[in-house]
C-alpha cells in the first residue's frame, strides 16, 4: 500500500501539480479522460474535491475504481451530453484534446457541464517538434509525445497559437494560461507571442464561459 | 403499480397473517407487521409475518459498519456458511468472510431471505391461519419494492439508521437499486452487480417458460401440492435447467463440456443423457428441487418481471436517483447476456444525468451471468478498492457529522 502510494506520488508530473493548484479545494470536478486516475487521485486526496472521472479504456477505468475513485467507462465525444448543466465547478481535460475528433463540441460540452474548463495539451509549436520535422524530416517522439505516429492516439496536431485562435473564434476567454518549458519551468502568461509558442512544451488553460 | 386504497390504509384487522411452515432452519427470526402491517404494492396488507435472516461479524458501537447483502432469485440468507439443506459452501463465501473482500472482521453482514421465499421468510408454503392450510397461490403477489420494504424494517429493528453498503447481484442488484432509490438517506454506497433497472422482455420470456414448466407438471395441483405425497419436482427441475442455461454463456459451456459424452464412448441413438451438458443440467435440476419450493419460484420470478424502476417515476429513470447522496458502483460482465452491460450502462447514464457519484466497470470473463458468484480476481480487486475508498470517505463524513 505504502509503496504503491510512493510510486503514485513519484509519477505525478509537473503539469498535474499545476492543475491541482488551479482547482479550488472542495469543489466538484469531472476529469474527462482520467486515464489510470493519478491526477484525479491527487485532486481527491490533496484538494479534497468531489471528483468523478470518465475514461475510454476499460483497463484505465478498472484501475481507477480499484483506487477507490468514482470513474465510469465512457467516451468524451458521446457521453458528456448525459451530464446536466452546471453539474461541476471544473471540467478537466488533461492531455486528451489531441485525441478528440469533435474539438469544438467537446469544449462546449465541458463548459456546459462545468462552470470552467481546465485543458492541458502538448504544444506542437515547440521548437524541438519543429526541428524534428524540419531537419530530421520525421514526426516527433519525445517524453510528451511518446508514441510513434502509427500508434499515437493523437489525431489533432495543434500549437499554442492555434489554440488561442480557436478560443477567439469560440468567443471564449482564457482566465489563466500556464506554459511549461523543457526543464519543467512553469510561467503564467497573458498573451502568447511567437517566442512563447516556440519555447513552450506544454500548456494548461483555465477557460471560463464567454 | 401501487394500488392505494382510496380510503387510506386499511386497518390491521384486514391484514393477511402468515404462520411460518419452516421453523427448523438455523438463523435469526423476526416477526413483523403485527401492530403495523406492511402495505404491499398490490394494495394488500401483510402482517404479522416472519422474516428469516443471517448475520456475520459484529455490529460496532455506533452501528456504522453494516453491509446488507441482497440475494438473487434462487439464493438465500446463507451467504457465508455451510448451507443447512445442501451441505454446500455459502453462495458468496468467496467474497464474504474473515479477511475476504467483504470482511466479516471489520463489517457486520446481514442477508435476509426475500419475501415470497422458502427459507424461513413468509412465502406461499407458509400457513394461512384463516384456513389452516398452506397459502399456495393465495399468497399475495409481491414485488422487489415489497422485499426491500421488509428488509428496511429488519434493518430498523437492528437499530441501524444507515447501511454502509447495500450489495447484490442479479435480482439482488434490483433490490440494491430499489434501496438506493427509495431510502437514499439510509444507504452510503450501493453496489448493483450484473443487474438492470427493469426486467427485459427476453428475461420475462425465460421466466414464463420456467413458470409454465412448473404449472404443466400434474403434481403442481394448481399450487396446492403441499398436503400431497408428491411435489412438482419435474416442472421445477425443467424451470431450473432452462434458467441455468441463461446464467452461462456459449463459450463457457463449450469450454466446460464441449460435445463431450457422459460416461460412454459413443452416442447411444436414444434419449439418455449422452452428452455431459445434458447430464450437468439434469443434475442442476435435481439438486435444485431439494432446496426450493416451486410456488416460491413462481412468486419470485414474478417479482423480477414486475420490476421497472423508471415506471415508478413516470418513465424517467434519472428521477429515481434525483439528488442522490449515494455512491454507486456498478459492475457488469462481458459475456452476461441475461443482464448485459447495456443494462448497467443505462443506469450509469441515468446516474450521470443527476450528477450522482458513480463508478462503473465491465469485467472481462466468459462465465456469463453466473460470473458474479464465481472467483473473478479482477472483480474482487475492483470491489475491494471501491469498498476501501468508500470506507475512507464514510469515516470522513462520520467524523464531520460528529463534529
Give the overall silhouette of chain A: globular
Largest interface: A-B, 23 and 27 residues
CATH architecture identity of the largest domain in chain B: 3-Layer(aba) Sandwich
| pLDDT averaged residue by residue of chain A | 92
| Widest β-sheet, arrangement of strands of chain A | 3-2-1-4-5-8-6-7
**Termini separation of chain A (Å)?**
44 Å
- Name given to the CATH homologous superfamily of chain A: Vaccinia Virus protein VP39
Mean pLDDT of chain B: 94
Oligomer: heterodimer
The main pleated sheet of chain A reads as: 8 strands, mixed
Bin the helical content of chain B.
25-40%
Named CATH topology of chain A: Rossmann fold
Spatial shape of chain B: globular
Count of discrete domains of chain A? 1
CATH architecture descriptor of chain A: 3-Layer(aba) Sandwich
- Total count of strands of chain A: 8
Strands ordered across the widest β-sheet of chain B: 1-4-8-5-11-12-13-14
Q: Number of helix segments of chain A?
A: 9
Beta-strand content bin of chain B: 15-25%
What can you see in these coordinates?
The complex is a heterodimer of chains A (about 210) and B (about 400). By secondary structure, chain A is of the alpha/beta class. Chain A has one domain: Vaccinia Virus protein VP39 (Rossmann fold), CATH 3.40.50. Helix content of chain A is about 35%, strand content about 25%. Chain A has helices spanning about 1-10, 15-20, 40-45, 60-65, 75-80, 105-115, 125-135, 160-170, 195-200; strands at about 30, 50-55, 70-75, 90-95, 115-120, 175-180, 185-190, 200-210. Chain A is globular. The model of chain A is unreliable at about 1-10 (pLDDT under 50). Chain B is of the alpha/beta class and about 400 residues long. Chain B folds into two domains: about 10-200 and about 315-400, Rossmann fold (3-Layer(aba) Sandwich), CATH 3.40.50.1820; about 205-300, Rna Polymerase Sigma Factor, Chain: A. Chain B contains nine helices and 14 strands. Chain B has helices at about 145-155, 170-180, 200-215, 235-245, 250-255, 275-290, 295-305, 340-355, 375-400, and strands at about 30, 40, 45, 50-55, 65-70, 95, 100-105, 110, 125-130, 135, 165-170, 185-195, 325-335, 355-365. In chain B, helix 1 crosses helix 2, helix 3 packs antiparallel against helix 4 (about 235-245) and helix 3 packs antiparallel against helix 7 (about 295-305). Mean pLDDT of chain B is about 95; it is low at about 1-10. Chains A and B meet through helix 4 and strand 3 of A and helix 8, strand 14 and helix 9 of B.
